[in-house]
Design brief:
The chain is of the alpha/beta class. Helix content is 52%, strand content 9%. The two termini are 42 Å apart. It is found in: Cytoplasm.
Amino acid sequence: MVAAHQLRQRLGALVAEAFAAEGVDPQFGAVQRSDRPDLAPFQCNGALAAAKQAKANPRAIGEAVKRRLDDNPIFEKVELAGPGFLNLTPADGALAEAAASLSTDPHLGAWQRPVDERQTIILDYGGPNVAKPLHVGHLRAAIIGESLKRLFRAVGDDVLGDIHLGDWGLQMGQLITQLAEEQPDLPYFDADFTGPYPTQSPVTVDDLAALYPRASAASKADPDRRAAAQAATMDLQQGRPGYRALWAHFVDVSKAALEADYAELGVTFDLWRGEASVQDRIGPLTERLKAKGVVTESEGALVIDVAREADKKTLNPVMMIKSNGSVGYHSTDVATIEERVEEFGAERIVYVVDQRQAQHFEEVFRAVERAGLIEADRLEHAGFGTMNGPDGRPFKTREGGVLRLRDLIDQVVEAARRRLAEGGFSADEDSAVREDTARKVGIAALKFGDLSNPRTSDYVFDVDRFVTFEGKTGPYLLYGVVRVRSVIAKAGERPDPAAPILLTDEAERQLVLEMSLYGDAVEAAYRRRLPHLICDHAYRLAQAFSRFYTHCRIGDEADPAVRASRLALALLTARQLEAALTLLGIDVPEKM
């Protein structure tokens, strides 16, 4: 049974029945939002395809379907246009029923995944390296991943977000050997030391941030230093106690800093696993796959061949064990998938990682399918484009360096602080409230500026445009919610969500229509992994309320029944807007 607030689906079911009654496939009765809203809110274009299948005249089919719909009270009017297009306008009664249904729905109209289709999903997003501060390149993975996690949970899936730390590669060996150069007397480098090792880390996260560039430069400039770093990496992976103890310090101080930085963005993780967590799996897994003939030897390395005859590009073998006995990204990713399936019961794994890593994931997905760990179609790479500067290239500082994420956040919050001051927002509030508002507006500007672009597209970062209160921006939407709250507060009476909805103005009808399409936006965003579709809905809804606010008296409406109806619509608007913003990971300030 289609819920009353699922207005488009209700109309579609009726149109499908009419097509079926004419002897054609009911799938041609699909109803969509109209391309010409000036003609009607909804349309059905199925007559053309139905006519082709039935070898009939499309307008004749359209006319027959129209006759079957004309007397249904759910429609105010059904009009036939062109060669058979159906323009559909729902009656006020149907709109009022949709609004009433939305107000009682705990999900406010958001689409819900059928219970028997819900899955246990691991969402892999974040991916920072230990010992390196977060920079702007980490922004998109964090906020897209957080939004998808919220979206998946909202529709009913069981979701775990995993940061998947980069904590086990060559950079660890480089840090160890660099620290040994600079502080050789530390006990971690004494092979004869039996412990216990110090509980206090010999380095802070700031020390690591300064240490790594020196380590990386030395490794690039000196072949002997690179060889030493590679040897230290292998020793670490094979369990040398001093190196493991030092590595644990690196991870601990890095995690504390990462948690603080991600908290600024409202991003959290359920799992803080890293590549190191699967080290003990790689050897046994490789041996099992070797016995099955999936892993073979190639130039001293143990690999899984993933190439196929039909391939139009060269795919690299997935290297499980390198020729020197160490492991890399391929092997840790394969073992991580095994861990996620066995330990967490993952039925689907979604990777929110830069689109430029597409080939790597294609190789890994093929390898795990060959290994029999999970079907490749249950593994997804939700790739994303880059955040660019005005020159169209990946965003950099004015000096050409990589900007730290915390510095970027500070820039946006400061821009929001200035814009709020210029507009006189929160001028009567104390400094703590003003600062909280500025931070929420700045983060909303940053997140919405990113998420409102299609995930797969590049976009240009423009802080001045993002923090404006006009147009399709985060601050505009925050102000929209706060304004609705203010309208309700000024009315001086508590809105009754169950008040009968009376539609006396076109602006009211358009507001209800927008709210009724929230479910479509949620479903499309979920199925296509595209949070910008939620952004689009939120913006259209805010615009619809603005028109409603302009054309209709609300709290000061003289007619008590109309006033109660309009206050109920205002309350429903605020609730749905806040729900949409929550899916995007955006917090709304109390006042502005």
